[in-house]
Amino acid sequence: MRTRMDARRGAGGGFLLTDASPEEVFAREDLTPAQQMFGRIAEDFMRAEVLPRDAEIHAKDWALTRELLLKAADLDLLRVDIPEAYGGLGLDKVSSAFVGEKIGVLPSFAGSLGAHTGIGTLPLVYFGTDEQKARYLPRLASGEWVAAYALTEPGSGSDARAARTRATPAADGSAYLLNGQKMWITNGGFADLFTIFAQVEGSKFTAFLVERGMGVVSGREEPKLGLDGSSTTALILENVRVPAANVLGEVGEGHRVAFNILNLGRLKLGTRNIGGAKQALTRAANYAVERRQFGRPIAEFGMIKQKIGEMAVRCYVGDAVAYRTLGDVDRALEAVAEDDAEGALKVIEGFAVECSINKVWTSEALGYVVDEALQTYGGYGYSKEYPAERAYRDARITRIYEGTNEINRLIIPTRLLRNETTRGLFDGDSARRALAEDDGQGAGLSPSTLAAERDLLTRGKRLVDFALGLAVETYGSGLAEEQEVLGHVADVTAEVYTLESALLRTEKLVASKGEAAAAVQLDAARVYASDAADRMAHSARQVAAALAGGGDSREPRDLLEGVRRLTRHTPPDTVAARRRIADAVLKAGRYHL
């Protein structure tokens, strides 16, 4: 395999080039007492203050939502990402994401709070001038003002630069007049401060800080499939006069604001997604114990255990992926000066591949879990009187917002081809080397601990070389138009990252607790690896077949034989392993891995 690199081992696809050791990665078990305490504050707030008001929140009582946001501010939950100089706490990304996981117990309110503290506030944190920060951030930290982010338009979603909202400079240069419409704006019905994107002089995509009092008008509340306890409206902008001093960043550089803030959102979305999955699993497991059919609890039936076991596997692996990435980002940010927002953005942008993998994988894991949870309830799952149907509806948006999963799948291989860490490494020669190298055992903790899974991981990294290298050689500059091929390469890459994250987390647990105490986690890692091998093989076969049809000179059977070699894996008894995992969850009465 190509020479290993030590620097920036996690960023920009660096995980394909480096072999991280368990002690180098952050796992959920590494949360400090201070981080855990802050998470408990968030969880206690949600259970004591928010959940009892569930019906009112879902009845769209925005005055109540604002009241609860003020209470959250009193507990410092709105200050996490704001620098201390402006009334915040300036905490690390792990702390922020852990709070996000805990507020996810009620997704609609979590959407309101998360939009305020995340995409609503972070543009100002990273791109605001000192004067802009001093004017607005203390109000946002205290909950006096609520923030929102307005990018999407009726005719532009993923293609943000196609926005038609206009910003016309006043003759004296003192202000801009904004005209246009924005769509799907979270907190749109009651926010006070908006980050709004518009075209200056027709083509200079620019971000503005716009106060509601400047003339912003909210449209009706959108009738949504889920998250119906959060405000989502259009914004109507008719000659909204915005001072020139409220340009956020530079004129014509709005894409930097938009794309970096979305990347930050993807970084922290994973914990909220997996938090929701854990709740759905816990409720389904408890229902399975209570529900009796054929004279016994349905939790005793193998098909139900298979569901519970697989849901737990997705939660366990999701935690491994999310916290590994957060830990790597925090570690990289430690080298950046506290007041160097530009440096911090550059670091976070370097993790675009990993952030997109987080977003895609955890949102689809959540989708799987809420679907299987509903199925566990049977007919009752379809009833609004049971919790499974709302969780099912609330989860669906996670595959759409923060950039659709389709867009994020395209980002993964595209950034691998552009990033400083991996640029120039994927070509026909790299693909041929991936096939020519000797097959060997990866490094497990012992011959009996995840050695086969480590070997699969090593070959999985070579499979990315193989698939992406041949795609570059076959299509050249036309590769960008081969979206299906890029999507399959993205799926292989994501499986490699998630598999490695799961193995590292498990090896770390084994090292600290011993194999016997980590037996369920070992089962989870082995089950995931077995299925990952099949999924990698499926995606790589699609790439191989497409390359054969796209002009690659090799015989299709040669390409497919390469895929077979790189993805072969003798599966363990996953039926028995899932049963053991399910039994552990049922005994605990909750997800606890």
Helix content: 55-70%
Number of strands: 10
Helix-strand sequence: HHHHHHHEEEEEEEEHEEHHHHHHHHHHH
Estimated structural class: alpha+beta
Calculate the mean pLDDT score and round it. Answer: 93
Total helical elements: 19
CATH architecture of the largest domain: Up-down Bundle
State the fourth-level CATH superfamily of the largest domain. Butyryl-CoA Dehydrogenase, subunit A, domain 3
Domains, number: 4
In short:
The chain contains 19 helices and ten strands.
Describe, in plain words, how this protein is organized in 3D.
There is one protein chain. The protein has 593 residues and is of the alpha+beta class. The protein has four domains: 28-146, Butyryl-Coa Dehydrogenase, subunit A, domain 1 (Orthogonal Bundle); 148-251, Beta Barrel (Butyryl-CoA Dehydrogenase, subunit A, domain 2), CATH 2.40.110; 255-406, Butyryl-CoA Dehydrogenase, subunit A, domain 3, CATH 1.20.140; 424-573, Butyryl-CoA Dehydrogenase, subunit A, domain 3, CATH 1.20.140. 55% of the residues lie in helices and 10% in strands. It has 19 helices and ten strands. The strands form two sheets. Strands 1, 2, 3, 4, 5, 6, 7 and 8 form an eight-stranded mixed beta sheet that branches. Strands 9-10 form a two-stranded antiparallel sheet. Helix 15 packs parallel to helix 17 and helix 17 packs across helix 19. The longest helix is centred in the middle third of the chain and has 37 residues, at 254-290.
